[in-house]
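User: Protein folding is very new to me. Would you mind checking the protein record under this note? It all follows right here:
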Amino acid sequence: MTTEHRAIVAVDIASFTDPRRTLMHLRTVQEGLYDMLRVSFDEAGMAWKLVYHEDRGDGAMILVPPEFPKLLLADQWYGRLLAALRRYNEVHTLETRVQLRVALHHGEVYANSDGVVSHAVNLAFRILDAKPAKSALAQTGGMLALIASNDFFQDVIAQEPSAVPSAYRRIAVSVKQTETVAWLRLPDVHVPPPAPPPPRVQVTPLSDIVDALLELPFVREANSRAMLIDLLPREIANSVPYYPITRMHVFALVQTCLRHERGLLDLIEAVRQLDGDSGGVRRLEGIKRLLLSDSVD
C-alpha cells in the first residue's frame, strides 16, 4: 500500500434517484457525467487518462496527481465543467438534466490494487453532503455548486485572486459525526449586490425636542416654565430670550440649551426634577441618544 498527497474531487448528481428518472434516464445521466468530466479535465490541462477515478453510483471520486497544480481545479477546471454542463443540459430532456455538487479537498490517500482509503476522501464526501449546499442548489436552480473544504479554501483559493475567493461564502457542515465548515460557490448563479441601506430619515432634533417639551403641561404654563428655566445653569437661564407665544419661547429655550456643551443634558435633568421619570422625560432621553449616535456617525 502506498501513500500520496492528492487533490480530491468528490462529485454528486443532485436528485439522481428522482422517481421520474427511468433506468434509461439514469444511464444517460451517468454517461453524460463522465463525458463532462473527461472533457473538462482535458480542457483544463489535466489529462483525464492520468487522474484516478472511481464511480460512486450517483457521482464520482477523483484523485488528481500532484504534478497538476491544485489551483487548476479552482480557477480553470470548474469553468470547463460548467460549460460542459450547459451544453449537456441544453440538448437533454428534463428527466436527464443534471445539477452537480462538487467538493474540493486535499490530503493523504492510501491506495492499493483494491481501491483507496483516506480520512481526507471521507471528509470530501461529508462536505459534499452539506445541507446548505444542497439547499442553495435546489433553491437557485443553478447547475453547479462548488464546495471547498476549509483547508482547500485557505491553502489554495484564498491565496490566488484568479480563484475569486470573494465569490465563496462560509457554510456549516454537520454530516454524521463530522462538524466543520466549508466554503460554497454557485458560479452560474448571479448573486445581486447587497441592497443599499435605506436613506436615513432626516431628523430635525430642535423641533422634536420642542414638541416633546410641549407635551408636558407644566412647560405650556408660563409660571412653571419660568421655574424650569431657573433650574438651568445660570449661563443658560440668563441667555434664554422671552417670547409671549409659548412655542416660540420653548423654541428659544431649546435653541439656547443646544448652544452649550451640556445644555441638553441640563435641560433634561431640570425637566426630570419637575416631572419625575415621566413619558415626556423618556422621550427626551430617546432624542438625546439619537443625537449622540448621529454625532458618532
